[in-house]
Amino acid sequence: MSKATEQHPQEQENIQPEHHEGLEAPTPEHEEEQIGETEGPTAEDKGVSELDELKDKFLRLQAEFDNFRRRTSKERLELFKTANQELMVALIPVLDDLERAQAAMKDAQDVNAVREGVELIFAKFLGLLQQKGLKPMDAVGQPFDADIHEAITQIPAPNEDMKGKVIDQVEKGYYLNEKVVRFAKVVIGA
């Protein structure tokens, strides 16, 4: 045998493989770290990102709702300011007619002509109000209804048929599109 191959058995056990710096063999701990890094985000990371997304959506939705509320309140204020505009514009011709009638009354000699002119203006005014939905109540002779009538007083009924019914109307009541806007002030038969 050659001298190189003849080594003592103890010396053979002491021979270790050569190690190069920076090339360590991976240990089980290092393997877990490498596996964890290549898997991607963990379930916990996903939950946190979903929570952040939901928080962001919530904040955006809340801001959007606040903007909506501000916008609608501003629109409401504008509507209240101009709600009567249509009615006022429709009443201007009646006002013009009343001014002309007032000027004509100063020099008028014929009372019947003035009366006819005022009646025409009144009819025009009443027609305009009815177009806008205002209707007068018919109270006299009707049974008393506390939902639409306001009793001023009671008097003895002239006959048995008029007991509990409206005998006289002190002030007319009005409906606006089927809703009572002014109660009729009435006298009831007892």
Automatic annotation (TrEMBL):
A Pfam entry, by short name: GrpE
Subcellular location: Cytoplasm
Keyword field: Chaperone, Cytoplasm, Stress response
UniProt-recorded Gene Ontology molecular function terms: adenyl-nucleotide exchange factor activity; protein homodimerization activity; protein-folding chaperone binding; unfolded protein binding
Annotated region (Disordered), positions in chain: 1-48
HAMAP family in the record: GrpE
Family: Belongs to the GrpE family.
Assembly description: Homodimer.
General function of this protein: Participates actively in the response to hyperosmotic and heat shock by preventing the aggregation of stress-denatured proteins, in association with DnaK and GrpE. It is the nucleotide exchange factor for DnaK and may function as a thermosensor. Unfolded proteins bind initially to DnaJ; upon interaction with the DnaJ-bound protein, DnaK hydrolyzes its bound ATP, resulting in the formation of a stable complex. GrpE releases ADP from DnaK; ATP binding to DnaK triggers the release of the substrate protein, thus completing the reaction cycle.
Protein name as annotated: Protein GrpE
Gene designation per UniProt: grpE
